[in-house]
Amino acid sequence: MLSYFSNPQRFDGLARRVIPVLGVLTVLLLGIGIYLSFFGSPPDYQQGDTVRIMYVHVPAAYMAMALYAALAGASFVFFVWRHALADAAAEVIAPVGAVFTVLALITGSLWGKPMWGTWWEWDARMTSVLVLLLVYLGYMALRAALEDAQQAARAGAVLAMAGVVNLVIVKFSVDWWSSLHQPASVIRFDGPTIHSSQLWPLAIMALAYTMLAAWLVFYRLRSRAVIQRARQIERRKLQAARAAQSTQGSGA
Amino acid sequence: MSRLGAVFAREARLAWSGGGGPAGPAAFFLAAITLAPLAIGPSPELLAAAGPGLMGFAALLSVLQSAERLYGDDFSDGTLDLYALSPMGLSLLCLAKTLGQGIATLWPLPVIALLGGLMYGVPLQPSMMLAAALAAAIPALVLLAGFAGALAAGVRRSGLLIALIAAPMMVPVLIFAAGAGRAGFEGDERALANLVLTLAVSLGAIALAPFGIAAAVKSRLG
Predict the structure, then answer these.
(1) Does A177 sit within 8 Å of B219, measured CB to CB?
(2) CB-CB contact of B181 with B53 (8 Å)
(3) Are B77 and B158 a contacting pair, CB within 8 Å?
(4) Cα-atom radius of gyration of chain B, to the nearest Å?
(5) Which of A62, B34, B48, B209 is deepest in the core (most CB within 10 A)?
């Protein structure tokens, strides 16, 4: 299975078929999800209509973490089996994950203002999401700084895997930090477990976000392969031109 | 063992000969804690409350400031290639190398932090707690800086890249080390717990980071 798609042509064939399907699914699920979250679900008894921010915020936060898990998983596959596609996946996942992290931070901030009365609170969860954004940025900066593609791939894989250990310790330490530092100034969403009228739109939105992320990742993977092939062709043309020139030079 | 000792001693000597040893980080640390009150304001209560946290933060910055040298020079002159060929094992060598340079250059930080704490109006006991916590944090800080430094070795302007990579990794150390000083200042009994957690993070870094650093070095040697 792993080695099957190491053939670029086979992967391209798969991607060509998968991309439109994912696109249609994304649009469909986002449409249903947005309709349900605006009209198909009741306002909260405490938060009123503001609770609807949850339907765009929670899936974004979930994707921010899920995509980091995917990045680390792809890095592991590349590190162990040197699978080129896994490295390509890691490279294209990182910016998508960073964008979802920013989205989670922005929507969280927009939700925090009406609910907690502040755009930003140094609460454990928000702080660790901010750290997650830094981890994404560090990964992207390292890959961008290393010119040799093979070195960038390997160093990136090492960093992404170390990030998993790091993020677990960060989560634990930030919990400890905010419990030491801060008396409860944050209204916690500890009420009764979420009601099914809110769970349905949330689940559909989460699925829609997942499809959107998968769509973007496959799209970027395919365009990355196309760019690489174009570069290769250009290089070959250049080499052929040089070879022709040198034979002419020696003939005269 | 003696070969590891030789690597350790080499790093310590290099730190002295190449860049004034502990003078650089110490001067940077001193400058940072001198400038901070000028920005925050001279109110004694405010400074005493912010002191332990500022001290921890300034120590982190001075470790980052010297991180570029940890692996950059040895990467460009080929020393790391030789280390990778050695039968000693790259991870042990990296541990000796990183700790050697770290301890040789960073040992004054806890001393300055103790003085700085007193200057900020933090009582003696929490100041000592903070100094102890910083001493406990140094192995973790320097190993994490070494990991980032090995990944970014030989890159132009690697200092910024190292800071960006290492900063999220240093979050736990900063929380526990500065937390020890802060809790000590607030008379919280969790100061000792924070100190012990700082030590735990350092021990964990000593156990795990060498493998990470070795993997990072290997990934860059190609």
Answers:
(1) no
(2) yes
(3) no
(4) 18
(5) B209
